Amino acid sequence: MKETIKLLTEAYGPSGYEQTVREIIKNQVESYADTVEVDPLGNLHVLKKGTGDGLKIMIAAHMDEIGLMVSFIDKHGFGRLTGLGTLFPQSLVGNRAIFTDGTVAVINAEKWPFPERIDHSFRNLYLDFGVLRKEDVPVHVGDVAAFQRPFVDLGETLLAKSLDDRIGCAVMIETLKQLKTTPHEIYFVFTVQEEVGTRGAITSAYKVQPDVAIAIDVTDSGDVPEHKQHFEVKMGQGPAIKVMDIGMLAHPNLREWMVETAIANDIPYQLEILRLGSTDARAMQVAGAGSMAGGISIPCRHLHTPSEMVNYQDVQQTVQLLLALLSNPVVLG
Facing residues of 146 across strands? Predict the structure, then answer.
C-alpha cells in the first residue's frame, strides 16, 4: 500500500488539474471494478456491484491537492500568487512550487527572514523563477502550481505534500482490492476540486443518487504544541468517525453503524467534531433528494502545508473499518 501512497502523493494534481492522479488511480482499480467511468467534470466513478439486496453507497475521496496560481509578474520577473484552496502563507516561505510544464519557483516573503505579519492576502509573498526580467519567466498569469516535496516513509509515520486527500484515495483503492463480496451497490468516486468548494462531489452525488454517502478524508490532529482548541482526535489512535464539522451533521444512525462495526471488529476509533473545514460529505448530503451522509477521517498533522503527516496504522485501520462496513448488510432507520 505504501507504494501506492508514494505514487499518489508525488503526483501533480492541484484543483482542476487532477488528470495525472486520475490515471494512476484508474490503472490501479480497473481490474477490480465492474465499471469505470470519467464524468464531464473529471470525477472518476468506480462501481463495485453487489448481490442486489443492499444499499446504494457512495464512498468519496478527493484527488486534488492545495496549490497556487500566478496572479501577476513584475518587470524583474518576480511573480505574485493566489491560493487554490486554503493555504497558510507562513508555511510557504522557502518552499518550491512546481508548474504543469515542470517549471520550478521558490516562494519567499518580503523583508526576509519574516515580515512582522504574513497575512492571508498573500501580498507579502512572491515567486522567484531565477530570472532577471519578465520576458524570461517561463510561465504566465493564470498558470497553476503545486508544491514540490517527496514522499518520506518513516516506518509508522508517513510524510508527504498531498496526504490531503491522496491518503483517502489510497484507502479506497486498497478497500476495493480487498473487498471480495458485498450486498451493496458501491460507487467508489474519486472527486475533483474539493479544495475549492467540493465541486466534484456535488455533481457526482447528483449522478449517483446514493442512499448512503461516506467521505474518506483527513482531519486535524489535536496532539501538536500549537493546537489551542480542545480537539480529541489524535494521530495514532485510530480512524475518526465524524460527528459534525462546520459543513454538515453526520446522520446519527450512520454514525452509530460505524461505531458498532468498529467495536465488533476490535478496530480502535475516535469521534470527530471539527470546528474548521468540511469534506465531500457536506456536498453529498444535500445533493438531489439528499442522502444519509457521514465520514471517516484519518488524523493528519500539519494540514494544508507542504509537509503533511499521518500514522500508517491509522490508515490500515481505516481500510479495515471500511471493509467491515461494506462486506455486511445493514439496516439504517
Answer: 98
Q: What is the reported pLDDT for 120? A: 58
Q: How far is CA 126 from the centre of its chain?
A: 26
- Please report the beta strands in the chain, taking only residues with DSSP state E, as ranges in sequence order: 35-38, 44-48, 56-62, 67-73, 78-84, 96-99, 104-109, 125-128, 144-147, 152-153, 157-160, 185-191, 212-219, 240-244, 270-273, 292-299, 308-311
Cα first-last separation, the chain: 35
Residue linked to cell 527572514: 113
The separation between CA 102 and the C-alpha centre of its own chain, rounded to angstroms, equals: 23
| Separation between Cα atoms, residue 147 and residue 131, nearest integer Å | 20
CATH of 67-147, one of 3.40.50.2300, 1.20.1560.10, 2.60.40.3880, 2.40.30.40: 2.40.30.40
Q: Whole-structure pTM over 0.70, yes or no?
A: yes
Instruction: Give pLDDT tens digits for 287-309.
Output: 988 899 999 999 999 999 999 99
For 255, other C-beta atoms within 10 Å of its C-beta total 20
Q: Return the H-helix or E-strand segment holding 5.
A: helix 2-10
CATH match for 2-65+161-326 among 3.40.50.2000, 3.20.20.210, 3.40.630.10, 1.25.40.10: 3.40.630.10
Say which of 18, 174, 194, 195 is annotated catalytic.
194
- What are the residue ranges of CATH 3.40.630.10 in the chain? 2-65+161-326
* Residue 194 is a catalytic residue: yes
